[in-house]
Specification:
Largest sheet: 8 strands, mixed
Strand content: 15-25%
Bound molecules: ligand 0RQ
Structural class: alpha/beta
Radius of gyration: 23 Å
Helix content: 25-40%
Distance between the termini: 62 Å
Number of helices: 18
Length: 507
């Protein structure tokens, strides 16, 4: 409602989504907020999509370039892709319709580390942004923007766009005010200074985003929920993965190498990542802390249960039930949650300083510990790298988790060579499947291969992997280099077999 706009002058800018969409022209470059199904505009994308459809019916071109924080939702990425209105998209998505548009070649997609986004916007790498579209939970007396459930790249979007359109969403809890910590001083080299954050829960900025009132060309009032996808209940496979990580961390605590409160935890997207957090509920740790990009149900429940002291994220991505628990307990949570720009949540300097324990899911790993997070069979985009690389390279521990098979056993998640390469053997420290865990630290490629094959692969594929490795060793010896044994023409044959027969196993 209009009460959420406390700045009198800005109330005059309120209009319908259709009126606001009139500012968006064919070919424009838009910075649109949204991060893992939170904080994205709810009304304007549909109005823009309708405008695109009408233009296409008239035989005219209409499409936009679109840089977000991360993934949005069907009523943002989905409707725009469905209207064939997105010619460029970055840096992360997970919407089925947009994914199809990318894989069909209709949308050019740049999949990139989230920590790089704001500095590349600032540098002008994407050209001028015409309009920033921002979701807010309110506007202060001074005209400052109170973000909603996520910040992502909003600070930079407002700074670098010519004009700003704000969606003020009354369905977002007004109690979000004060939970954000906006630090926008990262700047560009050679004038950068250390980011003054030394504890995961330090506040270093303001609780709102500054925005010059004359930049705002429209405000749209909305009243709709975030994506709020449900998580699958943790199944046997994810619980076995979670149990091994927890056992390992417990072992490190007992050996005196980690404090009982561990180190700040980062948890990736998806069901398995959420299950690991759920597993920590009954684990023998206390006063846990979180420093993550997306905070899902699992971490919220750790805080509500008193297991986790506090957590920092750039977005809150809850199932409908968890959203209810969040709203019911917002006063309790007020001094236990901080939302930051993604340039801070994913910042390599801070991840390294704090010593984050990173846990991310993967599509596949190879026997040497290289990880593919993004591509199915080497060519088909799933979601994107998101922040997984930021945490993998810079974290204190980096775990990669996956069931050992996919598609009912027809695909092995452990393969001779990854079909696309996101995280290198130099960064990945632990691989965990329901079969077991491989601690790759301090190991050579050949030592890693033994561990990954014996501990992590599914029994259906273990002999095939042993056979590949043994033959690769012989072949590479002849070729004069056995540091990382491979049979180059066979290394990707498992993927090729799946493409041709629908199964990686030899029939
Ligand atoms: O597809 O549902 O059609 O069967 O991938 O797989 O096992 O449900 O796992 O939901 O945890 O997602 C890597 C995609 C895993 C995700 C990925 C198929 C599988 C299924 C999902 P179906 P699961 P999850 C922080 C960090 C990159 C971004 C990231 C991801 C679907 O975790 O996008 O980490 N990560 N960000 O069948 C073919 C294989 C497969 C496979 C799984 N080997 N081959 N298909 N699948 N393994 C957040 C942000 O950055 C914003």
């Amino acid at each position: 409602s209009i009460d959420r706009i406390r700045h009198a002058g800005l109330r005059d800018k309120v209009m319908s989504a259709e009126q606001a969409a009139e500012f968006v022209q064919n070919g424009m470059n838009l910075a649109i907020t949204g991060f893992t199904g939170a904080g994205y505009p709810k009304a304007l994308p549909t109005a823009i999509a309708n405008k695109a459809k009408a233009a296409h019916e008239r035989g005219e071109q209409f499409s936009i370039g679109m840089v977000t924080g991360a993934s949005t939702a069907p009523e943002c990425d989905g409707v725009l892709a469905e209207a064939n209105a997105v010619h460029f998209r970055s840096p992360f998505q997970s919407d089925p319709t947009l994914r199809n548009s990318i894989n069909a070649g209709r949308t050019a997609y740049q999949d990139m580390h989230l920590s790089h986004v704001e500095q590349q916007m600032r540098q002008g790498f994407y050209g001028q942004f015409d309009i920033a579209i921002i979701e807010a939970s309110g506007i202060t007396e001074e005209g400052h923007i109170i973000p909603a459930m996520g910040i992502g790249h909003a600070v930079e979007a407002i700074k670098c766009a010519k004009h700003v359109i704000i969606e003020v969403n009354a369905a977002q809890n007004a109690g979000l005010e004060g939970m954000h910590d906006v630090y926008g001083e990262v700047g560009l080299p050679p004038h950068r200074k250390p980011i003054p954050l030394v504890g995961a829960f330090d506040r270093i900025g303001t609780p709102y985003i500054e925005c010059a009132a004359d930049k705002v060309i429209a405000i749209v009032l909305t009243n709709g929920g975030d994506r709020n996808s449900k998580f699958a209940d943790p199944d046997d496979v994810s619980m076995r993965i979670a149990a091994q990580i927890i056992d390992f961390l417990d072992h490190e605590v007992k050996a005196g190498r980690l404090p009982k409160s561990l180190l700040p935890l980062q948890s990736g997207v998806g069901n398995v990542a959420n299950a690991v957090m759920a597993g920590l509920l009954d684990a023998p740790f206390e006063d846990l802390t979180g420093y993550t990009e997306v905070l899902q149900d699992g971490m919220l429940d750790l805080i509500l249960a008193g297991k986790m002291k506090h957590a920092s994220a750039t977005a809150l991505s809850f199932s409908p039930d968890a959203l209810q628990r969040f709203n019911d307990n917002i006063e309790f949570l007020r001094d236990k949650l901080i939302l930051r720009p993604m340039e801070i949540s994913n910042n390599p300097e801070i991840i390294r300083r704090l010593g984050i324990i990173g846990m991310n899911a993967m599509i596949e790993a190879d026997i040497y510990g290289n990880v593919n997070s993004t591509h199915v069979m080497g060519t088909k985009m799933m979601n994107g790298i998101g922040g997984s690389g930021d945490f993998t390279r810079n974290g204190f521990f980096s775990f990669y988790v996956s069931p050992s098979t996919a598609k009912g056993g027809a695909i092995s998640s452990i393969v001779p060579m990854v079909s696309h390469h996101d995280h290198t053997e130099h960064d990945v420290m632990f691989i965990v499947t329901e079969q077991g865990m491989a601690d790759l630290r301090g190991k050579s490629p050949k030592q890693r291969a033994k561990l990954i094959i014996e501990n992590c692969s599914h029994p259906d594929y273990r002999d095939m992997l042993r056979d590949y490795y043994d033959r690769a060793l012989a072949v590479s010896e002849k070729a004069g280099g056995i540091h990382t044994p491979h049979i180059l023409l066979e290394a990707l044959s498992w993927h090729q077999r799946f493409v041709e027969t629908g199964d990686m196993r030899i029939k």
